[in-house]
Amino acid sequence: MVTAQLTETVLSHEQSDGYRTHYRLWGPPNCDDVVVMLHGGMSHSGWQAPLGAQVGARPGTAFVAVDLRGSGLNEGRGHIPSGERAVEDITAVVRHLAGSNRRVHLAGWCFGAQVATVVAARLAAEDVLASLIMMSPGFFFNDRYNDVLDRSVDAALAVVAELDLTPEPTRPYISVPLRPSDFTDRPEWHEFIGNDDLRLLRVTEATIDAWEEIAIRSETEYAAIGPVPVLAVFGTEDKLVDNGRVREFLLTHPDVRLHELRTGHAVHFEDPDAMAGLIAAHIEAGRPGS
Question: What is the mean pLDDT of the chain?
Fold first, then answer.
């Protein structure tokens, strides 16, 4: 068990359109292996702090948690212009980090795993990624979440239509229908989520479209990620993801390792030490000479 607690460093990368993508770093800026983690739809890079401190404290390894466009420390809260723009942002950050680290392991939690998959497919011909790591991968959600999200979008659009409004394209007005209990049953984390001013409560219609675009692309492009080894970790008590369906889907890749932890959807909140151990073993197995 790693007990060291690292201080995070906040850095940023300027995108091709001038937008600055912020990310948090735990560990050295130049190392043998860096894990680049993408968050879910409602959350941001700060939610990865318990896991980042664990992984970044291990010798030769750093942990980077990136804020997606419109999330966390980034500008334009709640707005993603398009799925393609979100994918290009992360692709650029990965290429940037590959310049100062020997091996890059792209990772994603929930929706972040879908983004990571599309990025991995885009980078397949460049030999940039050493592996792909998925935590509670959100390729397929359960019926309750899908129904609630659809109703939230429909309700917002109905109000706009009834009032004959034309919302500003970058103004978030669609509620994100997630509760702290959807992520974990731990009261201390309910309090953390409830007090988090950076979580997304509302998003734009373009963001909903971008989420859907990436979800569709992740399913079709998973087969194009190339020979990179895949680690997927599921929480047995996950209330959002259809674990069985996702497992079946991921096993179509020839080099995938599946693991379960007795947690809810937020594996990194409930058991960061076990998750960090699985990541460390995965990295070690892929190192030259292992």
Answer: 92
pTM above 0.90, yes or no: yes
- % of the chain with per-residue pLDDT over 70: 90
Q: What residue spans define the domains of the chain?
A: 9-286
What DSSP designation does 204 have? -
> What DSSP state is assigned to residue 7?
P
| Alpha-carbon separation of residue 64 from 29, 46, 88, 141, 203 (angstroms) | 9, 11, 17, 26, 25
Report residue 156 as tokens. Answer: 């917002």
Once rounded to an integer, what is the mean pLDDT over residues 220-225? 98
Pairing, β 103-109 against β 33-38: parallel
286 pLDDT band (50/70/90 cuts)? confident
Instruction: Annotate 259-284 with b (16+ C-beta within 10 A) or e (fewer).
Output: eebebbbbbbbbbbebbbbbbbebbe
| 3-class secondary-structure state, position 218 | helix
Superfamily for domain range 9-286: Alpha/Beta hydrolase fold, catalytic domain (3.40.50.1820)
pLDDT at 44: 98
Contacts of 139 (CB under 8 A, 6+ apart): 113, 114, 215, 218, 219, 241, 245, 246, 249, 250
Give the containing element (helix H, strand E) for 49.
Answer: helix 49-56
Bridge partners, residue 231, by sequence: 133, 257
Residue 1 has what pLDDT?
A: 31
Q: How far is CA 97 from CA 25, 34, 140, 199, in A?
A: 11, 8, 30, 26
Query: If residue 286 lies in a helix (H) or strand (E), which one and from where to where?
Result: helix 272-286
Residue 6 has pLDDT above 90, yes or no: no
213, containing H or E segment: helix 205-221
